[in-house]
Write a structure and sequence with these properties.
The chain is built from 8 helices and 14 strands. The protein is α/β, with parallel strands linked by helices and 263 residues long. It is globular and about 55 Å long.
């Protein structure tokens, strides 16, 4: 069959989100797809440094990280867009002023607030990053602060309206969960990442497939005609995709690739 180019979200798609485990059926399906000559890309909000050893060992053909701010073909970077350093420190100051917990995500490091006790979710993320075995976790006061996007948590004491007004000229945001927002630079999405890969490899969108589970996958669902929603995904996205597969833990990736005759 004609070569397909497939873009995979990570959490809730390739990985069982809570346990951070890649199902064996997914590993085997990806291997078979590559053997059949198809190109496989990760398309994630995670920074490149946040890719686990298990995920990286699957030898994807490229990576779109940081919601389109860093685009790789193999390990060669095709595009990157970080936030200017002065703006990075302005954002840190405003986060503290507005009492908003956050993780700041860059290509090589992630940054956590060293002046406040971390909320449970950030402690878990810190442990996950440290589990990669690389010293990538740094503090907001690091003199080399360098990030491209952030995740924020809103709590009762947060002054989120003031913060959103502060960033609205140069950032967009997506609500991921009840109190969790992904904040990313304007002009950058998972879809713009696909466009950059597409302009380099010059493939037809009809030979492209996207697979995801949440609201931050919407841009790639809307851009690519053949899109797949995981069975554990956000049901409000059902009318944005051409196929709904099984849950990630129920061999959802394998089921999806078989449906499109990739394997």
């Amino acid at each position: 069959m004609e070569q397909k180019i497939i873009f995979f979200d990570i959490d809730g798609t390739l990985v069982i989100e809570k346990e951070q485990i890649i199902p064996e059926s997914t590993i085997n399906a990806l291997k078979k797809a590559k053997e059949n000559g198809h190109l496989l890309f990760v398309n994630t909000g995670r920074p490149f440094c946040g890719l686990s050893k298990d995920l990286y060992s699957l030898n994807f053909d490229g990576y779109i990280c940081g919601s389109g701010t860093h685009v790789y073909l193999g390990e060669d970077i095709l595009y990157e867009k970080n936030i200017e350093k002065d703006r990075c420190f302005e954002i840190v100051e405003k986060l503290r002023e507005c009492k908003i917990p956050a993780i700041l995500e860059g290509k090589n490091s992630v940054y956590l607030d060293n002046q406040r006790t971390l909320i449970k979710e950030l402690v878990e993320m810190k442990e996950a990053f440290e589990g990669n075995g690389i010293d990538i976790v740094k503090t907001w006061d690091d003199e080399n602060l360098d990030f491209s996007k952030l995740l924020i948590w809103i709590n009762p004491e947060s002054e989120e309206k003031e913060f959103f007004n502060f960033i609205r000229n140069d950032f967009n945001f997506i609500k991921l969960k009840e109190n969790v927002f992904e904040v990313f630079q304007k002009g950058h999405t998972k879809a713009t990442g696909i466009k950059r890969i597409q302009s380099h490899l010059t493939f037809d969108l009809n030979n492209c497939i996207t697979i995801g589970d949440s609201n931050n996958d919407l841009s790639m669902f809307e851009y690519v005609p053949n899109s797949i929603l995981m069975g554990n995904g956000d049901t409000t996205l059902s009318n944005k995709v051409s196929f709904i597969t099984k849950r990630v833990e129920d061999n959802g990736i394998e089921h999806a690739l078989k449906h499109f005759e990739i394997i």
